Amino acid sequence: MATRLTQPAPAPAAEPALSKQEVLRYSRHLIMPEVGMDGQLKLKKAKVLMVGSGGLGAPLGLYLAAAGVGRLGIVDFDTVDFTNLQRQVTFGTSDVGRKKLEAARERLSNLNPEIRFDTYETRLTSDNALEILRDYDIVVDGTDNFPTRYLVNDACVLLGKPNVYGSIFRFEGQASIFGYPGGPCYRCLYPEPPPPGLVPSCAEGGVLGVLPGIIGCIQAMETIKLIIGKGEPLVGRLLLFDALGMRFRELKLRKNPECPVCGEHPTVTKLIDYAEFCGIRGEEAPMQTAAVPEIAVKQLKQRLDRGDDLYILDVREPHEYQICNLNGHLIPLGELPRRVSELDSSREIVAHCRSGKRSAEAVEFLTKAGFRKIWNLKGGILAWSDEVDPSVPKY
Amino acid sequence: MAVKVMIPTPLRQFAGKQESVNLEAGTVGDALNALTSQFSDLKKHLYSDDGRLRSFVNVYVNDEDIRYLQREKTAVQQGDTISIVPSIAGGAKA
């Protein structure tokens, strides 16, 4: 008489539960039927990767940590810079000079010690992207350049992971979700990047600090909605935000059947060289203007002290002149062709701008217009502040 | 047909700093031609040298991408909004 021994059922994978502390911490989530224990447990199990911890990453990281996303990965190799503090609110003044990842981890862990943070202090590249992204459920793109955006997009499509997209410029923002099964990807919207230099960056165009705050919050919101499976996600929708008019608009995004990455017959089946794709070769080369005659700031100072009759031409914008100036005659670069008659070509002219790039263009233009006694102030007013007069503010 | 063309922030400096321009046009192509005739600096930002709309610039009539309509031949109705939507990335120098 054999005793039938039933095989014990395999133990179910341990489901995360919420501790008493967590129940209290997330009580405002738990009392909402749209979230409840189910939703909060989904958040706890979720693994979200943030690419970039800057203007968009700041509110993103804060709100994802606050919401209880169980595992948060952050990719960023940068150091906190003083000029970041106008918008990157994860950081404080005392963090200037620290690695962003270190400062972010500290801030976010303090906000929510229950979260597991994984930091990747590296530039995301075609060599490491698939490896880094693989472990995560959702990727949030908070990057600041086109090559990385295309890289993140392609990697997400190849790995089948949704990519919560947000981007900003000055007073405008965009948000959407790319790479969602059945939905469009970034390349469906923009098959090709703009050539470098055609679309200015924040450093060149400026940005209202709170704008990435708003868009980053929208990205956090969409990420949480995806995790708890509630509401209508921005799949197939491009949200456009105009901060000055305080208007939201929405455009339909369609999946492009001929998309090289997510279409029916994809031609991009592995990650490519994105720097090349975006037209940037190697490290940023200094601007290739024809060599223009230059004068160093110390030389200018010497000549002015000597009483030389030099005409200082400032080719910056009026709002820059208000920040600081060398008492130059202001003709913004864009107006120079129209106003060249204001200049006397018999005088010695020193053209300057902030860093020496725009003024180099001005000197090139004026030289072609027949001016012979014209020099570019090398390094611009920034160099003047560094080497001649530190009381001149840098910006 | 009187239509409104929305100018995105990065291009407003080439369109007299306006956020939108009202034009008369029968098709999207007409509207863009009228726009670039009025603001010639806009042309090189919207069109490449061979006269094609740049691929990082999308054009919508109301909320539909013209690539899925009849592209520049898409007819416009009175009161339609044409949006120009270029790609933006913020942040670092490209």
Explain what this protein looks like in three dimensions.
The complex is a heterodimer of chains A (395) and B (94). Chain A has helices spanning 20-25, 27-30, 36-45, 57-67, 100-111, 129-134, 146-159, 186-189, 202-205, 210-228, 274-277, 297-305, 318-323, 336-339, 357-368, 380-387; strands spanning 47-51, 71-75, 116-120, 138-141, 163-169, 172-178, 237-242, 247-252, 294-295, 310-314, 329-330, 348-352, 374-377. By secondary structure, chain A is an alpha/beta fold. Chain A folds into two domains: 20-277, Rossmann fold; 294-387, Rhodanese-like domain (Oxidized Rhodanese, domain 1, 3-Layer(aba) Sandwich), CATH 3.40.250. Chain A has an eight-stranded mixed β-sheet, sandwiched between helices. In chain A, a hairpin with a 4-residue loop joins strand 7 (237-242) and strand 8 (247-252). In chain A, helix 4 (57-67) runs parallel beside helix 5 and helix 4 (57-67) runs parallel beside helix 10 (210-228). The N and C termini of chain A lie far apart (91 Å). Chain B is α+β, with helices and mostly antiparallel strands and 94 residues long. Chain B is built from three helices and five strands, in the order E-H-E-H-H-E-E-E. In chain B, strands 2-1-5-3-4 form a five-stranded mixed β-sheet, with helices on one face. Chain B starts with a strand and ends in an 8-residue tail after the last strand. The model of chain B has no long low-confidence stretch (mean pLDDT 87). The interface between A and B is large, with 48 and 26 residues.
